[in-house]
Amino acid sequence: MTNETPRPNRSGKPRFQGDHKPRGEQGAKPQFRGGNAKPTTNHRRHREEPEEKFIRRAIPDIDTPFTRMGIDARVAVNLPPMGIEAPSPIQEKSIPGIVAGRDLLGLAQTGTGKTAAFGLPMLTRLLNIGRKPEPKTCRALILAPTRELATQIAENIDAYAAGTAIRQFRVVGGASINVQTMRMERGVDVLIATPGRLIDLIERGAVDLSQTKYLVLDEADQMLDIGFIHALRRIAKMLPRDRQTLLFSATMPKLMEELAESYLSDPLKVAVNPPGQAAAKIDQGVHFVTQGDKATLLAEYLGKHRDELAIVFGRTKHGCEKLSKLLEKWGFKVASIHGNKSQGQRERALSGFRAGETKVLVATDVAARGIDIPEVAHIYNYDLPNVPENYVHRIGRTARAGRDGRAIAFCAPAEIGELRAIEKAMKSQIPVVGGEVPFEASKIRERGGPAGRPGNNNAQGARKRPARRPSRAPKSVQRD
Ligand code: AMP
């Protein structure tokens, strides 16, 4: 995908000629939403203003909560049409420090507004440079674990930077490396990359990081989970020491502390949700069920909310594909995304889901990371994740943009260990909403206090002899 728009005229002509008005005064501003419609994450409409691409606008004379925090008015003016009127907590806590040049360690999940938290100060800084990037270089580098998250960041940056001369370019696996190499010949303001593809491009001599003064590591814990630690260590060595670095992570495992230490210098620390804790508006539950009955149970849950968007998380690519075919056979509008799907297939699946054409998305952890679709009302943990922190990421795909959401975990007898690890990481028990509590789980729950919801007979009543504990070691995290 060529995800950039042509560079505007930089001939140095006066910014305003004829009738051009500052953006804030323009009558026909690109709209993200009609009337009172909800904000959408599809910001591509900004690209539908061809004649405006070539106009460098003057700095609008506006006073907003963002300009007061030091964000350039040329960027701040783009925010209200996107439904961004006032800073979110992570933005409020981090933007002033970032604008002042501090490194940042941000503990925040997707959905908190962290893209704007790092994107707005980054664009402000880039706008003040005012020179073209040198060939093969990028002034700012944003590293993200997955193609989907990279795409989402790219769309956000395009929207925040609309009407300015700043351009981003996204380099991810699954797209032509030759096209990416050719594009990098010119250099770019903001490079958004997955670590693996970035290393490939560096090895080809297509990317030079010596001029990169602004670095963002987004969802860094997920980058570690999928084995990017070596790539990150190599990238760290190629960057100038004199740079500003922002690291965002939803959790803070040990390895992350090491990474943070090597990348950050005297960082400002900001947390919006304590690490490993789920957002308050998610109504969580665990349903005990045998592995063999999971598909039927899922169909029952899905059948009750046919018109609402649901994401179903499976553990393996093969398992997700099989489940998605089965649900399709049973009449659900379903798509799947996992590492065996091509970039095009993943993007089509996501856009169909975002548009509500498919209601159910069956996904592996890695492929679903970073999905930001406010309409997602239900999360089903069809298989429990074997990395407990991924539970928090998964359920964080719902209850976004101030909405409510529901997350049901299907726990088979062999998954009690995973459930326990999740509850330990979250420091709270997930209420039982159905099924028979297996003996092992009930013992754990007794020790930790009552588990089920009041009035839930299943939760407090029936117990079963323990199923045999799985003898296999937990599989390592799947690499997509
Ligand atoms: P993020 O956490 O960056 O993935 O952002 C999640 C969603 O929140 C995106 O759709 C943003 O456009 C939106 N958003 C970001 N900041 C704000 C804000 N201050 N007010 C309202 N919406 C926001």
TrEMBL record:
Residues 1-53, 441-480 are annotated as: Disordered. CDD domains: DEADc, SF2_C_DEAD. The keyword Metal-binding does not apply. Signal peptide: none annotated. It comes from the Bacteria. Residues 281-445 form the Helicase C-terminal domain. GO terms for molecular function: helicase activity; hydrolase activity. Residues 462-472 have a biased composition (Basic residues). InterPro entries: DEAD/DEAH_box_helicase_dom (IPR011545), DEAD/DEAH_RhlB (IPR044742), DEAD_box_RNA_helicase (IPR050079), Helicase_ATP-bd (IPR014001), Helicase_C-like (IPR001650), P-loop_NTPase (IPR027417). Its EC number is 3.6.4.-. SUPFAM superfamilies: P-loop containing nucleoside triphosphate hydrolases. Keywords: ATP-binding, Helicase, Hydrolase, Nucleotide-binding. Residues 95-270 form the Helicase ATP-binding domain. SMART domains: DEXDc (SM00487), HELICc (SM00490). Residues 16-26 have a biased composition (Basic and acidic residues). It is an enzyme of class 3 (hydrolase). Belongs to the DEAD box helicase family. This is DEAD/DEAH box helicase. It comes from Paracoccus broussonetiae subsp. drimophilus.
